[in-house]
Amino acid sequence: MLEGIVRDSMTKQGTKSLRRDGYLIANIYGKGLENINAAFKKNEFIKYLKNKTTLAFDVKVGDNTLKVVVQEYQKDPISSDLLHVDLMVAQPGVRTTYKVPVKVEGTPVGLKNKGLFIFHKKRVPVKSTIENLPESFTLQIADLDVGHSVLIRDLDLPEGVDCYLDPRVPLVGVIKAK
């Protein structure tokens, strides 16, 4: 379980001193819950996220243990350091928007025909409860040739999971190399 601290000071100076000490600033929020301003050790947070197997994971901040999902993060544009992360509490029975990762299996045929494989969307926004949420969408791409794509409408959405993106939006595809 990932452990963090509750931030006392919301000032710019307090935030800078926490970052200097190696902390990552975080906001934890949820429907009907009071926001929690927290901080996690940056290296521990990154290591934990790389090794997690599910979309939702547990964090302990102060006396609270919460099941959360990463909603958004901010990086420094120059150094690519992680600056801030928004964590949403995954409440059972509450329908909300989650971003589910897209994974691919196979090697496209189009790569042998001088094509380039392109990832258009690495995460798909879906509206669901945490119980029905898939861990990821796995796409078989072995049959993709140059000019072919896998679209949103080609996804197999489980019961109770809705995607509000245009069905013609591509997820992955193979384009002709110049």
From TrEMBL:
Residues 2-87 form the Large ribosomal subunit protein bL25 L25 domain. It comes from the Bacteria. Keywords: Ribonucleoprotein, Ribosomal protein, RNA-binding, rRNA-binding. InterPro entries: Rbsml_bL25/Gln-tRNA_synth_N, Ribosomal_bL25/Gln-tRNA_synth, Ribosomal_bL25_b-dom, Ribosomal_bL25_C, Ribosomal_bL25_long, Ribosomal_L25_dom, Ribosomal_uL5_bac-type. Residues 97-177 form the Large ribosomal subunit protein bL25 beta domain. The keyword Ribonucleoprotein applies. The keyword Ribosomal protein applies. GO terms for biological process: translation. Gene3D superfamilies: Ribosomal protein L25, beta domain, Ribosomal Protein L25, Chain P. CDD domains: Ribosomal_L25_TL5_CTC (cd00495). GO terms for molecular function: 5S rRNA binding; structural constituent of ribosome. Pfam families: Ribosomal_L25p (PF01386), Ribosomal_TL5_C (PF14693). GO terms for cellular component: cytosolic large ribosomal subunit. NCBIfam families: bL25_bact_ctc, PRK05618.1-4. This is one of the proteins that binds to the 5S RNA in the ribosome where it forms part of the central protuberance. Belongs to the bacterial ribosomal protein bL25 family. CTC subfamily. Part of the 50S ribosomal subunit; part of the 5S rRNA/L5/L18/L25 subcomplex. Contacts the 5S rRNA. Binds to the 5S rRNA independently of L5 and L18. This is Large ribosomal subunit protein bL25. The lineage of its organism: Bacteria, Pseudomonadati, Campylobacterota, Epsilonproteobacteria, Campylobacterales.
